[in-house]
Amino acid sequence: MMQQYSEETEVEIRLSKIYTFKCKRARAKADHNRIGGPGFARVVFCNEPTSFQSTSRGYADNYVKTTKYSPATFVPKSLFEQFRRVANFFFLVTAIVSFTPIAPYSATSSVLPLSAVIGATMLKEGFEDFRRKQQDDEVNRRKVNVHQGDGSFKQCEWKDLRVGDVVKVQKDEFFPADLLFLSSSYDDAICYVETMNLYGETNLKLKQSLEVTSSLLETTMGLGLL
């Protein structure tokens, strides 16, 4: 499921054009006492499925679900959502009172309008939730290239991705999940990311891979770690 990157993959060493004085940059020393402070917010274990931190977290899968209801919970949850609204709750109380002798109006005049409004709203929400389910299925069935540990890649569905998988994202493709950028086929191991679906911005964002993995490169390949 989570494979270490194969040493058999063809590598290519590239010189940086962005950092002209790269050799003079100060390197951060490994000081675990500073974790939690500025610049030392977290420790990330990359592609280590056997580590204690990876096995003890119980990471969720990559299945996307944006629906509110299921076939078993649609009626009770939808009714609960409807009567959480003050107006609907008021008319529900009015309909209940109409069955008592003190009501100056008939039960039919209060129950029928309330039932029509609640029923129409539930049908509308059910249809919208069904459309969301179709969109979720379309996203979950999209394909991505996942490294198999022997230097080859195999296509699998987005929903089957797991933490630690090494994936290859090509130009103009969507990202299947949050990825740690390992390498790119561009110079300086950079890529340009469009975040319009997240923030509505159409400007391309410049991203550069980790320095320790930027030299790992297979021809026509961009690597990301889930």
Task: Give the key terms.
226 residues; alpha+beta; five-stranded antiparallel β-sheet; two-stranded antiparallel sheet; disordered N terminus; P-type ATPase N-terminal domain-containing protein; ATPase_P-typ_TM_dom_sf
Overall mean pLDDT stands at: 77
> Number of DSSP strands?
7
- Describe the global form: elongated
Largest sheet: 5 strands, antiparallel
The string of secondary-structure elements, in order, is: HHHHEEEEEHEE
Strand order of the largest sheet: 2-1-3-7-4
Low-confidence stretches: 1-15, 19-29
- Helix and strand content put the structural class at alpha+beta
Q: Work out the helicity level.
A: 25-40%
Helix run count:
5
Distance between the termini: 12 Å
- The Rg value, from CA coordinates, equals 27 Å
- How much of the sequence lies in strands comes to 5-15%
GO molecular function: ATPase-coupled intramembrane lipid transporter activity
GO biological process, one term: phospholipid translocation
Transmembrane segments: 86-105
Protein name: P-type ATPase N-terminal domain-containing protein
Describe this structure in words.
With 226 residues, this protein is α+β, with helices and mostly antiparallel strands. Helices cover 29% and strands 13% of the residues. It contains five helices and seven strands. It has a five-stranded antiparallel β-sheet with strand order 2-1-3-7-4, with no helix packed on it. The chain has a two-stranded antiparallel ribbon with strand order 5-6. Strand 1 and strand 2 (153-157) form a beta hairpin. The radius of gyration is 27 Å and the shape is elongated.
